[in-house]
Amino acid sequence: MSKYLLIFMLLISFSGNAQDIFGKWKTIDGQNNEAKSIVEIYERDGEVFGRIIDILNPENKKALCTNCEGEDYNKPVLGFELIKNLSKDGKYYKNGTIFDPEHGKKFKCRLMLTEDPDVLQVRGYVAFLYSTQYWQRVE
Length: 139
Prior knowledge:
Blueprint lengths: L1 H16 L5 E6 L6 E10 L2 E9 L25 E9 L2 E9 L4 E9 L5 E8 L2 E10 L1
Antiparallel strand pairs: 1-2, 1-8, 2-3, 3-4, 4-5, 5-6, 6-7, 7-8
């Protein structure tokens, strides 16, 4: 009986430590190390998306996406879906895009958990050039 209890406890501890990218993340600007927003990453129809659910600077909470184009032009940044259509490929989530509403730029995107499951590597690409940010998991 105790052998089965031990196996059960080991299985629970391993599954409890397994992490994925889904949930809430504090975005950290890579240039000045400033926390800017909270993004919720979620799955929809088998693909990964991310939406801004909070803006940390109270002065920017009502900001509009004046650098956006098309149907997103002048829409609130709060609630904006900036990560779109990523798919899992091994340890990476990629083949989708990330949009920077502050500068009005869209990039190819790759997400990956670092060795610390509470740190998400967010990489945006233009051709072979890229920029990387490290977001922190919000409990």
